[in-house]
Amino acid sequence: MMANAIVLNIEQLVRKSHGPLKLQDLQAQYLQVYRDELNPEDFGVASIEGLLLTMTDKLDFHYTDTDIILTMKESNPTTLQLAKNVVLTLMLSQCQLSFWQLKQDMLVRFKQDVTLNMCRNELRDYVEVRFEIKLSFFFL
To answer: In what order do the strands lie in the sheet with 68-72?
Structure first.
């Protein structure tokens, strides 16, 4: 869980860096913003670069002669709009929708179809799918 928090912190730094972020500046900025040192050995890797290479789905790496420049990967605009619509639908329902209700609302409001696999994969950064089994007993 702690590794996820570190990854999210790094993502935020790259997003808010007003342009590309140099690898050599990452550790100093991390310490300044989060008041904690970024120690890659805590995550089983030998270097900051090794830690960042676990984030290739989120970050682009641009190698120069003297440094590595980090930028966020651009999101697919269609996926981003779908995510916004799903989040809006969930917020309007106070996150109390079953998947099938979400699916129906998305079709009615936005004429967009949503599947479980889509939520688990493409929208995993925006929504979390939880399964809950409810048993009802009826006595005769």
So the answer is: 21-22, 68-72, 59-63
Q: Amino acid identity, residue 34?
A: Y
pLDDT along the chain (140 residues), means of 10: 75 83 90 88 84 84 89 80 89 84 93 88 77 57
Q: Determine the topology of domain 2-72 in CATH.
A: Nucleotidyltransferase; domain 5 (3.30.420)
pTM: 0.53
**Domain chopping of the chain, boundaries:** 2-72, 75-140
- The torsion of the CA quartet 22, 25, 30, 31, rounded to 10 degrees, works out to 180
Q: Are 136 and 95 in contact (CB under 8 A)?
A: no
Could you tell me if 53 and 110 are in contact, meaning their C-beta atoms sit under 8 angstroms apart?
no
Neighbouring CB atoms inside 10 A of 140's CB total 2
Give the C-alpha separation, 94 to 92, whole Å.
Answer: 6
Query: Which residues lie closer than 8 Å to 33 by C-beta, 6 or more apart?
Result: 9, 13
